[in-house]
Each structure stands twice: as structure tokens, then as C-alpha cells.
Specification:
Blueprint: H1 2-20, H2 30-45, H3 56-69, E1 75-80, E2 83-90, E3 98-104, E4 124-125, E5 128-130, H4 138-153, E6 162-167, H5 178-185, E7 192-197, E8 201-205, E9 208-217, E10 219-228, E11 232-233, H6 242-255, H7 264-274, H8 279-286, H9 288-291, H10 295-302, H11 305-310, E12 314-321, E13 328-329, E14 332-341, H12 347-358, E15 363-370, H13 381-393, E16 399-404, H14 410-414, E17 419-422, E18 427-429, H15 430-433, E19 442-444, H16 445-463, H17 472-488
Parallel strand pairs: 3-6, 3-7, 7-17, 8-18, 9-16
Antiparallel strand pairs: 1-2, 2-6, 4-5, 5-19, 8-9, 10-14, 10-15, 11-13, 12-14
The protein binds zinc ion.
């Protein structure tokens, strides 16, 4: 029923779009846009915002200047010395609540010696823009900016304001960026209903495309285990030394198998994926809880690290610290565990379970980072706008509400009641997607172009004011004027 009403809506939208926006009159010159996107990203990558220390103020100022050239006044703050936040608002009629386009200004470190190209030179080569942040998240910012800039250049009437927001510090938790902004300047976005940021996009696997929209994220529950015991000389081992205690505790934790559970958001993801699977797999995906009781299927399914992480809380041992000298028994030994909890989980209950398993009063457990796992509703005008655009471009590609195994800054906004999705419009094959945070990060220029087209279309679906009072004649005049405007600005 819902699908039927959506398809009727699609037809109406398409008609309206053709009526007020005849193709050819108000379509951007995508060749020019593609070139602009590649150049802009190349320049943006050259601003080194490696976090730590970040130095995002340089990136915030960069956007302030870029926005000024579009006639947009942006506000920039320094949340801490060197840390920047940039905010600008594209004004609409205010008939509907605002939409935020969020990206982060910082990037993770990159070793020049390990890369084939200089990660901060903004190299354009063989149809790609190379550099740290080319995808995460500078490429996303360029797509977001150009999608909105095109609407403005073309004079498209908006019923919602669109907020362009770039924040510091996402890669180390966002406290100096999105967290700081929400705490100190929430009044500036209090009228926002929706937010789009990094995470999902178009996943290309075995030549097939799927539009993945992150509606939920697993939540981090990062903990430190600290064991203490007598210090001494390595030549006289002690039975209760800190390192031994710690290893015993870790062994118990690593042997612990977390419960397998399929939460509703994850079931929805696999139900959508089932559409393109063979009949046998499709049946299993449609009732995953049932399917996972079959040992053969379970083993095959859990062998995929992403799928495994989607159906259970995970515990990864990542940091180990003991003595720095072979012949010294340290008084303390520490380990850090990167635990991730499914949507709906209670962190306190999870921590109590771990304490019970360790069962050692000489091990101190400290929580390093935790916030409750939150999800956004998938039945919204924004999700439907993405669905509509996807159906128009790729009629056979599924549009999938997904759960991210990692986390972004979305939680700061979800906590405030803003429906937040991870969706960039960037189409990435596995080969490029896996370079994020790795070596030789790059984005195909064709994906930048398509990402802008998709977001431009999604925004039109969601924010365009169809102005039913406009006659076709007047619309045409408006479109032509807008079109001239657009060419003039280049
Ligand atoms: Zn990122």
C-alpha cells in the first residue's frame, strides 16, 4: 500500500518537475560542475586538518570564503584554539522545517612515505581526486556544497532552509566540534527537522548498486581495564603480578560469545537486501533470527565481519600496556577494549555483564567513551525523497535503511530529536571504499558528479517549493533567468 502511494507521488513529482523545470532550460551544465567539484576538492584536501591537532579553523575559513563567493555569509567559531566550526544558512520560505547538511572538517593522519601520492597535495589523476579526506569527509562536503549552491544559482524556490555545517574533531569523538556546537549554539539549528551526513551512499558490489541510508549506528562503549599487583625484577616472577592478572581477565572476556540478536533496524536492512539475492538466501534474509539458528548458515553469515557486527555487541581488544622494559615487572598493566553496542542496548547492563565475567576485584574498569545507541525513523519525507530519486535513476537498485557498525557525529543531533541519516550520494566500489582511513584514499570524479546530481535531486524533492501558482510561461522565464545566472557565475 505504501509503495503504491509512493509511486503515485513519484509520477506527480515528475510531472511537476517537468512542468516547472523543463529539461534543458534549468539543468546545470554537469560537465562544468564536475570540473568545479574536482578543483574545489583538490584545494580543500590541500588544507591539512589532520586530527590531532586538527587545525580545522583553516578549513572553516576556507568554506567561509567559498560561501562568500556564492553571496552567502557564513559564521565561523574557534571552539578551542585552532579548532573551527563553520555554519551558513540558505534561506527558504520557512513553510517547512530546516534541513542540515553536516560534514566534519578534520581528517585522520596519513604518512606521506606510505602513499603513492602526497596525501595533502590534492592530486588529480586518472579520473580520481587523491588525498586524505577525498571521501571522508572532504569529498562529502564538496558534494553537499555544490548541490546547494546549484539550487541557489538557479534560483530554485525553497520551502525549507538548508543549513551547511562543518565541524571539528569528528575523528576523535566530536566533543570540540559537533558536541561543542550543539551545546553552545543549538538555537541556530533548533528549527531543523532533518540532517544528512557521511556514512551511507551507493554501495557497488559485484556490479550491483544499493542505496544505503544509515538510520542507526552502533554505539561505542570504550573501556579500560587496569590491573595492579606487586612490582619487581623480571628474574623473579610473581603469581599475582599485574600483567598476569590482566591477561587472565582478557582471556575470559575474549572467550565470551556475545548473544546473537537481530534488532528491527538490522532486520529491515536484510529484508531490503533480500530483493537482489537468490531465492534461498532471500528467504533467510527475510527472517534472519530464524535463519541464524541453522549452524551452517550462521557460520557463513558470521564469517563476514560486517554482518557479524550487525547482529551482536562486539568486543575488540585494541590497546595493551605493561612494562616498557623486559626485566621490569610493572605495578600496573592496562588494556583498552573497543566495545560496540546494538541499537536498544543498555550500556550499564553490558558493563555489569563484563564485570561478572572478569570477576576480579583487582581489575579496575573505567568507561572511556559511551553514549546510548539511537536510531532515526525510516518513514519520513527525507527517506521518501531518497527513494524517489533512486527509483528514477536506478529502478532496480534497492534503497536500504542501514545500521552503521561505526559511529558519526549524528548522535549529537539524534539526541535533540533531529532525524539524522548517513547518506552522501557518492557511489563507491569496494576498492575505493576500503581506502577510507587507509592508504591512497581517492574519490572517482564521476562519483563526485553523480553524488551532486543525486543530492541536488533529493534536495529538490524535499525542499523545492513547487509554487503551484506559477504558470508554465512564468516558470520558463524563471528557469531561463536562473540558467543564465548559473552560467554567469562561472
Ligand atoms: Zn568521517
Amino acid at each position: 500500500m505504501r509503495y503504491r502511494s509512493v509511486s503515485v507521488l513519484v509520477s506527480i513529482c515528475v510531472l511537476v518537475r517537468w512542468a516547472v523545470c523543463p529539461l534543458g532550460a534549468a539543468e546545470p551544465d554537469w560537465q562544468v560542475v564536475e570540473q568545479e567539484a574536482a578543483d574545489l576538492l583538490s584545494r580543500y584536501v590541500q588544507i591539512d586538518t589532520t586530527n590531532p591537532p586538527g587545525n580545522e579553523i583553516a578549513a572553516a575559513t576556507f568554506w567561509q570564503q567559498v560561501l562568500a563567493r556564492e553571496g552567502m555569509e557564513a559564521q565561523v567559531w574557534e571552539s578551542r584554539p585552532g579548532r573551527g566550526v563553520v555554519y551558513a544558512r540558505f534561506k527558504g520560505s520557512g513553510e517547512r522545517k530546516a534541513l542540515i547538511l553536516l560534514h566534519h572538517l578534520d581528517v585522520v593522519p596519513a604518512q606521506r612515505t606510505e602513499w603513492d601520492v602526497d596525501p595533502f597535495a590534492g592530486v588529480i589523476k586518472d579520473g580520481y581526486v587523491y588525498g586524505r579526506g577525498a571521501i571522508d569527509c572532504k569529498g562529502v562536503a564538496v558534494v553537499q556544497f555544490l548541490a546547494v549552491a546549484l539550487l541557489k544559482r538557479m534560483g530554485v524556490p525553497l520551502k525549507r532552509d538548508i543549513i551547511f555545517l562543518g565541524t571539528a574533531d569528528e575523528e576523535t569523538g566530536g566533543q570540540q566540534g559537533a558536541g561543542w556546537f550543539v551545546e553552545n549554539h543549538f538555537d541556530l539549528i533548533a528549527d531543523a527537522e532533518f540532517l544528512l551526513t557521511e556514512g551511507g551512499g551507493i554501495r557497488i558490489q559485484d556490479g550491483q548498486r544499493a542505496y544505503e541510508v544509515d538510520i542507526a549506528e552502533k554505539a561505542p562503549c570504550w573501556i579500560q581495564l587496569e590491573a595492579s599487583g606487586p612490582a619487581g625484577h623480571g628474574s623473579r616472577p610473581l603469581p599475582d603480578m599485574a600483567t598476569v592478572r590482566l591477561v587472565r581477565a582478557l582471556e575470559k572476556l575474549l572467550r565470551y560469545q556475545t548473544e546473537i540478536k537481530v534488532v528491527p533496524a538490522v532486520q529491515a536492512y536484510f529484508t531490503a537486501l533480500a530483493e537482489r539475492e537468490d531465492p534461498d538466501t532471500a528467504v533467510r534474509y527475510r527472517n534472519l533470527t530464524q535463519a541464524l539458528t541453522d549452524p551452517t548458515f550462521r557460520q557463513r553469515f558470521l564469517a563476514n565481519p560486517t554482518y557479524n557486527a550487525l547482529v551482536r555487541n562486539t568486543i575488540a581488544l585494541t590497546v595493551l600496556e605493561g612494562s616498557s622494559k623486559t626485566n621490569v615487572i610493572p605495578a600496573q598493566a592496562r588494556a583498552q577494549l573497543d566495545c560496540r553496542l546494538l541499537p536498544g542496548e543498555d550500556p550499564q547492563h553490558f558493563l555489569a555483564t563484563l564485570a561478572k565475567i572478569v570477576n576480579d576485584p583487582h581489575i579496575r574498569v573505567t568507561v572511556l567513551l559511551n553514549f546510548p545507541p539511537l536510531a532515526s525513523d525510516a518513514d519520513t519525507p527525507l527517506f521518501r525523497a531518497i527513494r524517489t530519486v533512486a527509483a528514477r535513476r536506478d529502478p532496480t537498485a534497492p534503497v536500504v535503511p542501514a545500521v552503521l557498525t561505526g559511529f558519526t557525529d549524528s548522535h549529537y543531533f539524534r539526541r535533540k530529536g533531529i532525524v539524522s541519516y548517513g547518506f552522501t550520494g557518492l557511489a563507491l566500489a569496494q576498492e575505493d571504499a576500503q581506502r577510507v582511513h587507509g592508504l591512497n584514499e581517492r574519490v572517482p570524479i564521476a562519483s563526485l558528479r553523480e553524488g551532486i546530481q543525486i543530492l541536488f535531486d533529493v534536495l529538490q524533492e524535499l525542499v523545492r517549493n513547487p509554487s503551484p501558482n506559477l504558470s508554465t510561461g512564468r516558470s520558463k522565464a524563471l528557469s531561463e533567468e536562473a540558467s543564465t545566472d548559473y552560467r554567469a557565475s562561472h
